[in-house]
């Protein structure tokens, strides 16, 4: 079975209403709220990429709608989720 991938853009209004990412900017802890449409329990993963496209953080098994990640080890910069 191939995992599903969600990309969020301006045309994805329904999905945007179900996903929350805060605070911005992140100091130490990133909180993510995943709504029902974005959460397939046990199959949802979150990856954070640096500006060069390298994965700098990955959680392969998100099992809760509200998750928090300690990102205090990341250097200051621009990242993509």
Describe this structure in words.
The structure is a single chain. 5% of the residues lie in helices and 36% in strands. It has 81 residues and is mainly β. The chain has one domain (1-7, 25-81). It has a 3-stranded antiparallel beta sheet with strand order 1-2-5, with no helix packed on it. A two-stranded antiparallel ribbon has the order 3-4. Strand 3 (44-49) and strand 4 form a beta hairpin.
List keywords for this structure.
81 residues; mainly beta; 3-stranded antiparallel sheet; two-stranded antiparallel ribbon; 5 strands
DSSP helical segment count: 1
How does the helix and strand content classify structurally?
A: mainly beta
- For the termini, the CA-CA separation is 23 Å
* Most strands sheet: 3 strands, antiparallel
Strand order within the widest beta sheet: 1-2-5
- The percent of residues in helical segments reads under 10%
What's the SSE pattern? Answer: HEEEEE
Could you tell me the mean pLDDT?
79
Number of strands: 5
Helix and strand layout, with pairings?
Elements (H helix, E strand, L loop, with lengths): L12 H4 L2 E4 L6 E6 L9 E6 L5 E8 L3 E5 L11
Antiparallel strand pairs: 1-2, 2-5, 3-4
Outline of the structure:
The protein has 81 residues and is mostly beta strands. The protein has one helix spanning 13-16, and strands spanning 19-22, 29-34, 44-49, 55-62, 66-70. 5% of the residues lie in helices and 36% in strands.
């Amino acid at each position: 079975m191939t995992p599903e991938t969600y990309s969020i853009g301006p045309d994805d209004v329904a999905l945007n209403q179900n996903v929350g990412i805060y605070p911005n900017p992140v100091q130490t802890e990133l909180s993510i709220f995943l709504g029902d449409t974005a959460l397939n329990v046990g199959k949802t993963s979150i990856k954070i990429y640096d500006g060069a496209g390298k994965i700098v953080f990955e959680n392969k098994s998100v099992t809760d709608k509200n998750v928090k990640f300690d990102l205090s080890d990341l250097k200051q910069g621009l990242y993509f989720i």
